[in-house]
């Protein structure tokens, strides 16, 4: 970490601007309802996008309301989301979360969290089964409207290849990137990194020849 050279504010803004010129979509289709967002993120764990979407649609079709889902057993939940993979583990987490919310708030909802300070919301979400720091911040940003920066696999990959982040732990990466990226760019930087990571800067076989920010990339130069 001693030899780490961090980008200037101008560099980060320039990279973000270049990416913005390539991707017109300003949203990733995340859910405005925090419990829906929790479900989608949980289903996406180690699952490709097609399987995640199929499992989410199956869940919402089978359970017209969250109160209906709260009455289901882990085994039933597992059968409904089986196409997502790791269905038993995910079903257990969903089951425990819904029971916990019901006991805490009297209803299966996260709506009351909206009135809490940002740090308290993060701590609460991190106590829920299956929720890590990235997931908590995604729920906070997309569903609660907090100005936070989730460092998911795409943000981490791009930041690492650009030479901005060499952290080995998720918590360290979140702390560092929240300092490097200007606060007014948190949302757009996250969304743009996900888009670029899916389309060009993939984990395996990245299409470096089509990369619009290759001039800033340490990975390609190596």
TrEMBL record:
Pfam families under this entry?
HhH-GPD (PF00730)
- HhH-GPD domain ranges (all copies): 43-199
Fetch the InterPro entries from UniProt: DNA_glycosylase, HhH-GPD_domain, HhH_base_excis_C
UniProt entry tagged with the keyword Oxidoreductase:
no
Protein's name according to its UniProt entry: Endonuclease III
Q: Which GO terms describe its molecular function?
A: endonuclease activity
For this protein, the record's SUPFAM superfamilies field holds: DNA-glycosylase (SSF48150)
The superkingdom listed in its UniProt entry is Bacteria
Q: Which UniProt keywords apply?
A: Endonuclease, Hydrolase, Nuclease
- Gene Ontology process terms (BP): base-excision repair
What PANTHER family does this protein map onto?
Answer: HYPOTHETICAL BASE EXCISION DNA REPAIR PROTEIN (EUROFUNG) (PTHR47203:SF1), PTHR47203
Q: Is Nucleotide-binding given among the entry's keywords?
A: no
């Amino acid at each position: 970490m001693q030899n780490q050279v961090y980008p200037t504010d101008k560099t980060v803004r320039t990279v973000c601007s270049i990416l913005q010129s390539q991707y017109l979509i300003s949203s990733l289709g995340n859910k405005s309802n925090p419990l829906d967002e929790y479900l989608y993120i949980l289903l996406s764990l180690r699952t490709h996008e097609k399987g995640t979407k199929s499992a989410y649609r199956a869940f919402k079709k089978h359970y017209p309301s969250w109160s209906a889902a709260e009455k289901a057993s882990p085994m039933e939940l597992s059968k409904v989301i089986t196409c997502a993979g790791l269905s038993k583990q995910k079903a257990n987490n969903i089951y425990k979360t819904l029971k916990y919310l019901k006991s805490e708030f009297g209803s299966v909802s996260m709506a009351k969290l909206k009135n809490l300070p940002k740090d308290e919301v993060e701590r609460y979400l991190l106590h829920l089964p299956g929720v890590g720091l990235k997931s908590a911040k995604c729920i906070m940003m997309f569903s609660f409207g907090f100005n936070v920066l989730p460092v998911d696999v795409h943000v981490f990959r791009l930041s690492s290849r650009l030479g901005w982040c060499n952290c080995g732990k998720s918590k360290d990466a979140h702390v560092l990137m929240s300092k490097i990226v200007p606060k007014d760019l948190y949302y757009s930087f996250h969304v743009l990194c996900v888009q670029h990571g899916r389309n060009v800067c993939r984990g395996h076989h990245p299409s470096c020849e089509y990369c619009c920010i290759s001039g800033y990339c340490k990975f390609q130069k190596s």
